[in-house]
């Protein structure tokens, strides 16, 4: 297993290189980069100032069309300075090589529009994303696996029927819509004001005792995590149920029953390790989606500044250092979690031997 882990860890490097390379050239080829946005902003400012002067002198409303402002143009030296400021005075291949060299030492540069380093922004936003991704994923698995197993064991029973309705409703309601409902009910919307509406912790967090800090943290996390859990537990519950049903109907289960093995022993000693493989296989995708894409709307609704919102805002602004830095971090996390999933395979079913393959 050691040799397999070393090979997987070594494969992380070329995989990350491929991810960064592909996205770098795609993004660089897309129109509307940071230089274009800064030029457009400068034209707007210049046009506004000229319009005010023109309006004051003539007493008439100045024209506000984009064509007239673009026609006025900017000094070529100003354009060259903006390109130099953003590093676009260098050819594409040179910018790519510089980025790779910096990324080898985890130097992601500075944000183009926030006047802060990418590392500082990531570290500042990381607690929110970790909190949402970690607790929602753990809660989803803690609910879905036992519920899915029980539904499989009691297939077609009354319990299976009414819990299926719960799963269908949970699957039909998007996370962001359920988040709005939670705010209306419990965060001062229309009924109760039991939970805070914004922030990871309270403003007086530093003044609280240690146990009060823990309670305050989970008080703020309760509604966002619950909203994410409702949106994610349904599909995993049905996946667990169907996986266990498929294993329960196999011949080796019939054989174990014929030999007198108890239902509990059959379920947790034989069926569990086979049925859980497909559930474990989906863990990296579940965690990454909760960690990044799945939490974006939740961060917006609950005014939580996490990595999902940071990546989205950076994409809109074409803040390339932040875009590529967060992409690098999420790619690295996804690859490492994939390796952890392989280790979980061997823990659930010791018969799996990646080394021999």
Automatic annotation (TrEMBL):
Q: Which SUPFAM superfamilies match?
A: MetI-like
Q: Which GO terms describe its cellular component?
A: plasma membrane
Give the stretches traversing the membrane. Answer: 130-149, 161-187, 217-240, 275-302, 322-348
For membrane topology, the record states:
Multi-pass membrane protein
Localization, per the record, is: Cell inner membrane; Cell membrane
Q: Name one GO biological process term.
A: transmembrane transport
One Pfam family cited in the UniProt record for this chain: BPD_transp_1
Q: Where is the ABC transmembrane type-1 domain?
A: 126-345
Read off the InterPro entries from this record. Answer: MetI-like, MetI-like_sf
**Keywords of this entry:** Cell inner membrane, Cell membrane, Membrane, Transmembrane, Transmembrane helix, Transport
Q: Which Gene3D superfamilies match?
A: MetI-like
PANTHER family to which the protein is assigned, alphabetical: INNER MEMBRANE ABC TRANSPORTER, INNER MEMBRANE ABC TRANSPORTER PERMEASE PROTEIN YEJB
Q: What does this protein do?
A: Probably part of a binding-protein-dependent transport system. Probably responsible for the translocation of the substrate across the membrane.
Please report which protein family the annotation says this sequence is part of.
Belongs to the binding-protein-dependent transport system permease family.
Its protein name is Inner membrane ABC transporter permease protein YejB
């Amino acid at each position: 297993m050691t040799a397999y882990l070393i090979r997987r860890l070594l494969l992380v490097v070329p995989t990350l290189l491929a991810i960064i390379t592909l996205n770098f050239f795609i993004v660089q080829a897309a129109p509307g980069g940071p230089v274009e946005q800064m030029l457009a902003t400068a034209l707007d400012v210049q046009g506004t100032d000229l319009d005010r002067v023109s309006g004051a002198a003539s007493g008439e409303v100045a024209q506000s069309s984009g064509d007239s402002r673009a026609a006025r143009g900017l000094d070529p030296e100003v354009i060259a300075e903006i390109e130099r400021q953003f590093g676009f005075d260098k050819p594409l291949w040179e910018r790519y090589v510089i980025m790779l060299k910096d990324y080898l030492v985890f130097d992601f540069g500075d944000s183009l529009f926030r006047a802060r380093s990418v590392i500082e922004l990531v570290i500042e936003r990381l607690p929110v994303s970790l909190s949402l991704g970690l607790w929602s994923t753990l809660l989803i698995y803690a609910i879905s696996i036992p519920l899915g197993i029980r539904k499989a064991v009691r297939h077609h029973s009354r319990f299976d029927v009414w819990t299926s309705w719960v799963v269908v409703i949970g699957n039909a309601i998007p996370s962001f819509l359920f988040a709005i409902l939670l705010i209306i009910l419990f965060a001062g919307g229309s009924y109760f004001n039991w939970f805070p509406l914004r922030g990871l912790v309270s403003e007086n967090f530093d003044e609280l005792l240690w146990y009060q800090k823990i309670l305050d943290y989970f008080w703020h996390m309760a509604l966002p995590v619950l909203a994410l859990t409702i949106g994610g537990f349904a599909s995993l519950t049905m996946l667990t149920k169907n996986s266990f049903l498929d294993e329960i109907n196999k011949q080796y289960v019939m054989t174990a029953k014929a030999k007198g093995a108890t239902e509990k022993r059959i379920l947790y000693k034989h069926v569990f390790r086979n049925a859980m493989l497909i559930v474990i296989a989906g863990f990296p995708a579940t965690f990454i989606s909760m960690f990044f894409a799945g939490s974006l709307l939740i961060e917006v609704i609950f005014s939580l500044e996490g990595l999902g919102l940071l990546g989205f805002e950076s994409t809109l602004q074409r803040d390339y250092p932040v875009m590529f830095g967060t992409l690098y971090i999420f790619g690295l996390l996804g690859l490492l979690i994939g390796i952890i999933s392989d280790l979980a395979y061997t823990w659930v079913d010791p018969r799996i031997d990646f080394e021999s393959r």
